[in-house]
Amino acid sequence: MMQSADLPETLAVFPLPGALLLPRSRLPLHIFEPRYLQMLSDALKTPQRLIGMVQPNPSRGDDGKLHQIGCAGRVTQFSETEDGRYMITLTGISRFRVKSEVDGFTPYRRCNVCWKGFERDLARQCEADNRFERDRFLQLLKRYLKARDLATDWETLCQADDELLVNSLSMLLDFTPEDKQALLEAPCLKTRRETLVTLIEFALRGGPDEDTLQ
Q: 53 - beta bridge partners?
């Protein structure tokens, strides 16, 4: 497990709309643009092997502004294809706050970042949600998947612990980039679960009714 002292002050960032990474979760990525191939190569040369996932912020204009909060992932798997592309897996380590962008000569973007306020992300144990009504949540999820005609490994979903279940669905379900950002910025698992429920209910019925799962 990584410690606070291991986290760098400057981080290579990968701005990707709709891509959500959360602590202790895994995000597969397909790397093929030359600038991001260089980013991967440079990251693999560092002890931490960290890449920051952060979404562009369209509300701040169209000049490439970023959301203030992203999540850093450690490259834990990678394989090269015959044509020079890479399939990698990032394992979420900790969220961070963007302080400023770094001017430099790298083809990819780098930011000065602050890790303060996200210390719980580095915990070894999964976060708990003691108010999670799991059976009701799974019934809601089943309705959502049926309405979207989506197939899933239901047995694996049912066996997942609370954090893995909530975080995996937050990352995988087809929400807008702004909805994904809200899930990322949720301060705790309980809040993320409540946000996820609200988003599913909106998708099913245009908004939560009197029978909510909050």
A: 14, 71
pTM for the whole structure:
0.90
User: 3-state secondary structure string, the chain?
Assistant: CCCHHHCCCEEEEEECCCCCCCCCCEEEEEECCHHHHHHHHHHHCCCCCEEEEECECHHHCCCCCECCEEEEEEEEEEEECCCCCEEEEEEEEEEEEEEEECCCCCCCEEEEEECCCCHHHHCCCCCCCCCCCHHHHHHHHHHHHHHCCCCCCHHHHHHCCHHHHHHHHHHHCCCCHHHHHHHHHCCCHHHHHHHHHHHHHHHHHCCCCCCCCC
Amino acid at site 41: S
Tokens of 154: 């239901």
Token pair listed for 196: 């996820």
pLDDT, one tens digit per residue, over 79-138 is: 999 888 999 999 999 999 999 999 988 999 999 999 999 999 998 889 989 989 999 999
